[in-house]
Amino acid sequence: MATHSYDTVTSTIHRWRVPAPEGRGAAWQDIDTALEMAWQVYAEHHGLDPRGDRPGDYCRLAVVDDDIVITVVSDQVTGH
Fold first, then answer.
1. Pairing relation of β-strands 7-19 and 60-64?
2. Which of 38, 41, 56, 68 is 20 to 30 A removed from 49 (C-alpha atoms)?
């Protein structure tokens, strides 16, 4: 008889969009504020001290249309 395990992974994608109109970029202050909010979500999900060091891969940045998009993915794994 074979044995196996089964998991369900539910991902929640958190996105912050910082306007970067006309290809001129975004204001650093706006990016910094959005990064701080993203870090708070990541730290809370992973049970980390929000005043602690940030892992280099806690979020992703991408240029989408006229925005800089900051993304944090929170996964919840449940075993069956």
1. unpaired
2. 68
Q: Residue 45: name the closest of 12, 69, 1, 78 by CA.
A: 12
Element (H, E) at 7: strand 7-19
Q: What is the pTM of this model?
A: 0.82
Dump pLDDT digits (tens) for 8-35. 999 999 999 999 988 788 999 999 999 9
Torsion of CA 57, 61, 62, 64, to 10 degrees: 140
Q: Which residue, chain included where needed, has tokens 């504020």? A: 33
In the numeric block, which tokens belong to residue 6? 């089964």
User: Domain ranges in the chain?
Assistant: 7-79
